[in-house]
Design a protein that fits this description.
heterodimer; A: 12 helices; 82% helix; globular; B: two-stranded antiparallel ribbon; extended
């Protein structure tokens, strides 16, 4: 099983890194990180804050775009090209292994991308601050949370990919990402409602992915300490929520008639 | 049970378990982030910049900011906060993004004007917000009413209040008693009769039970203020005649200054403490300005739960 999973994951990774769009996006993100150095210089006394805000936002946004655009095609492209039938029929690969392998492959791709972009980002921080200190470890927390964001959005893109066309999948994925960034506000609104509305809103607010808690870019830009408990809870949350999304993906994929 | 059904049940159970765990974890995450120190920071403080960044979708953004105002105020109010640092900038942002959003001026001015913990205790900011609303919506007569209310009750400036009511009364469709209020304030600057007139009008013209309850509460408090003024005059008269404070109401009654022990509108006897008339239970009268025990100021009292809406909503 492990062998089959890693084979699918590695192939997914290999296929993704061949994509030229991926490199364009990474290059663009790195350009923005570089531009933030210049942008910081023309602002008054906040060049480091601008660099952190703009740099980490670029890493996050471009990673999300890459995750969605590659994630939505993971299953549908295989169905379209009819390569899926070869994989599932000719080889002893179970459907859940196929989904899990595709997911792991894309997460691997995104992790490598994030690492590349982070190297560029830290080089820019070093250029602006002239040194890297212990305080900069906070930036790693923000990057770790961005990686957790990638894991969540990859799982969601994959879920939509199991039952919808690539265009609709990308719309759904972007929409759920946008809604997820307002998850805390939604829970706040739900608390203010009464009766049945309160129940429905609370349910919906807790079911949408909690992207809000994963964005700590502004905090680290202002050197606000991120509590270790939040790191632990966010990690657990992302793993559990991803588990739920992957279970749903496999469930749907198992029921699909691929003939 | 067939194999397929067993598999389906397994998936369903697994999904429910994951989702339940994720909900429990979100609740924990919310607890950790509830005292986030950056919550009191407005990342983009310039309404004009946000307006440009909205790419034309300023209406939607204004709605989002307005909901954030309500949420911010609600959470602060619930926590009985004494400071509402973001309230004015958030309202400014909302009304710059959508200058026609009347509820933002209407309720926003209440949030800003009321004394902490009921509100931000910044009536000047409330007046500024409503003036901005009037500039953008000169035909909205209620905004003049809001402004008059703030000047009259919060800033104790009867002349400006009268002017606001007067300007509002000229707007087509304005409530007829706007003109009466303007005249009454100009003639009897700040007198209790004017307040009684106003709250009686609200009581009679509103169908909202909360507003009616609030108006009734205000009227009872005004009656207490009026009672205390009369009773204090009698007690002072006793003190002048006898060269000492009365020890109780019986002495004042014996001197023929009162007929019986005076009762407040909730049927509790007024208290006589060291020559001063006080209410027995000040918490029952959250808006009184007279007869409070020493050390308590008007506006310090806990009122009805929830913020007090003190204006007509027609």
């Amino acid at each position: 099983m492990i062998g089959r999973l890693s084979a699918i994951a590695y192939n997914t990774y290999r296929e993704a890194v061949r994509d030229r769009v991926l490199y364009n996006l990474i290059l663009f993100a790195l350009l923005i990180v570089g531009a933030s150095v210049l942008f910081g210089q023309i602002s008054l006394d906040i060049n480091r804050i601008v660099l952190i805000n703009l740099g980490l936002t670029a890493i996050s946004m471009f990673g999300i775009v890459i995750a969605i655009f590659i994630g939505i095609g993971l299953v549908s492209k295989e169905i379209e090209k009819r390569t899926l039938y070869t994989v599932l029929a000719a080889r002893p690969v179970r459907r859940w292994e196929f989904i899990a392998g595709k997911f792991l492959g894309l997460v691997m791709t995104l992790t490598v991308n994030a690492l590349l972009m982070s190297v560029g980002f830290f080089a820019a921080v070093l250029y602006v601050s002239h040194r890297l200190g212990l305080g900069d470890l906070q930036l790693l927390t923000a990057i770790y949370f961005i990686l957790l964001e990638f894991i969540l959005i990859t799982a969601l893109a994959l879920l939509f990919s199991t039952f919808s066309t690539p265009i609709f999948s990308s719309i759904f994925a972007f929409a759920i990402f946008a809604v997820g960034t307002f998850a805390e506000d939604l829970r706040g609104f739900a608390r203010m409602a009464d009766g049945l509305t309160r129940w429905v809103m609370t349910g919906a607010a807790y079911l949408v992915p909690n992207f809000a808690a994963l964005n700590v870019i502004s905090q680290v830009a202002h050197d606000v300490k991120i509590e270790p408990r939040l790191i632990l809870l966010n990690t657990l949350y992302v793993f559990v929520y991803t588990g739920a999304v992957l279970t749903a993906s496999v469930w749907i994929f198992e029921r699909r008639n691929l003939k | 049970m067939t194999r397929d059904l067993r598999v389906q049940t397994c998936y369903a159970l697994l999904l429910v378990a994951f989702l339940t765990a994720s909900i429990l974890l979100v609740r924990q995450v919310d607890r950790v982030r509830s005292d986030d120190p950056l919550q009191e920071v407005l990342y983009i403080p310039s309404p004009k910049v946000v307006n440009r960044m909205s790419l034309g979708y300023s209406g939607l953004l204004a709605d989002i900011y307005w909901t954030r105002v309500v949420q911010y105020f609600g959470s602060k109010h619930k926590a009985k906060a004494r400071q509402y640092l973001l309230l004015e900038p958030l309202l400014d942002m909302t009304t710059t993004l959508d200058p026609k959003l009347l509820p933002a001026y209407d309720f926003g001015s209440i949030f800003l004007a009321q004394k902490p913990p009921e509100g931000a205790g910044d009536p000047l900011a409330a007046a500024r917000l409503v003036e901005k609303g009037i500039r953008e919506n000169p035909q909205a007569w209620r905004l003049y009413y809001d402004l008059g209310y703030i000047y009259w009750l919060e800033l104790k400036d009867s002349a400006k209040a009268s002017d606001a009511f007067e300007r509002g009364s000229k707007v087509p469709g304005a409530h007829p008693w706007m003109r009466v209020m303007a005249a009454a304030l100009a003639a009897h600057a700040g007198e209790t009769e004017t307040a009684v007139y106003m709250w009686t009008n609200i009581l009679n013209s509103s169908e909202d039970p909360e507003l009616r309850k609030n108006a009734m509460n205000r009227l009872l408090c005004l009656r207490v203020d009026s009672d205390i003024k009369i009773l204090q005059d009698r007690v002072d008269q006793f003190t002048t005649q006898n060269g000492r404070f009365p020890s109780g109401w019986q002495e004042v009654i014996s001197d023929g200054l009162l007929r019986r022990v005076p009762l407040d509108p909730r049927s509790n006897p007024y208290q006589l403490v060291g020559g001063h008339v006080q209410v027995a239970q000040p918490d029952l009268f959250p808006f009184i300005t007279r007869g409070l025990p020493p050390g308590r100021e008007a506006g310090d009292l806990p009122g009805e739960p929830g913020f007090k809406i003190t204006k007509t909503q027609q």
